[in-house]
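Render this sequence as a predicted structure.
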Amino acid sequence: MISIGCVPFMSGGILRVLQANYNPSAFCSGIFSLLLRTLLFTFLVLGPDAAAEGAEPAALAEWDAAYRQNRSVQEFLDLERRMQDALKREPASEALAWRMGRVYFALGKRMTSDADKELYFSRCMEQCEEAIRSNAGSAPGYFFKGLCLGMRGQTRGLWASLMMIEPFRETMETALRLDPSVDRGGPHRALGRLYQDLPFFLGGDLDEAIGHFREAVRLAPDYAENHLFLARALLEQGRPQEAEHTLRPLFRIVPADASDPDDREMRQSGRKLMQRISSELKQQTVDAHNP
C-alpha cells in the first residue's frame, strides 16, 4: 500500500496516472468535500439508521413504503418474508427489528381469531425488545412495543387489559422522552387515548388527554387522525366550537375523492363527528334562547 498525500492507494496503473499530474492540496480537498457530501446525504436524506447500521437504505425505504401502502394480510405476510432474509443477515439491527415489530403489529390488528392476534402481538413485542437491546434509545422500538403490549392485553380480556395499563403508560412515556415525533406524534396520540378512555378511578384525565392530542397535532399537523382524536376529546369536554375548529383540517388533509380505503374511512369518521358537533352547537343555541 502506498499513500499519496491524504489517501492510501494500491500501487499499479491507477497510481501512475495519479502521479503524472498530481496536486496534493487540491486532491485532498476534493476527497474531503466528496466524503462530507456523502455523509450529509446519508444523514439528512437517508436518515441516521443508514449511517448507523448495515441495512441498505433503499431496502428500508422500500419496506416503509410497503407498510404505508399495504392493506391485506397477504401483503403484510409477503413483506414479513422479504424482511426475514435481511434479519438473518443482520440479527442485531435495530432498524430492521422495530420495522419487523411494526409488521407484526399490522398483522395482529388484521387477524380475526384471538389466538392469531396474540401470536402476532407477541412477536411484535419480541422484535421491539430486540431493537431496544440493540439500541437502548430506540424510540420506535418502545413505541411499537407499547402498542402491541396494549393490544395483547385487550386480546386476553378485561383483567389482562387492566394489568397492562401501567406497563403501557411507562413504555409510551419512554418513547415520548426519546422522540415524541415517532409515527407522527404517536406517543402523544397513544397516551391521549389512554387518558381519554380510562375511567377517572383508574387514572383517566380528559385534560391530560387533550394536552397530549394538542402536542400530536403540533408535531404532525398534516396527519388527520391527530385532529380527529383532539376534536373528539374537546367535544366530550363540552367544547363543540373548539372541536369544530380542530376537526376542519381533516377534510383538507383527506380529500373527498380519496381512493385509499383507510382515508375514506377516516373522512367518514370525521363526517360523523362533525354531525355530532353540529347537533351540540344547535342545542347550545336553543338553550341560550330558552334559559
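Summary. The chain has two domains: 55-179, 196-291. The longest helix spans residues 261-289.
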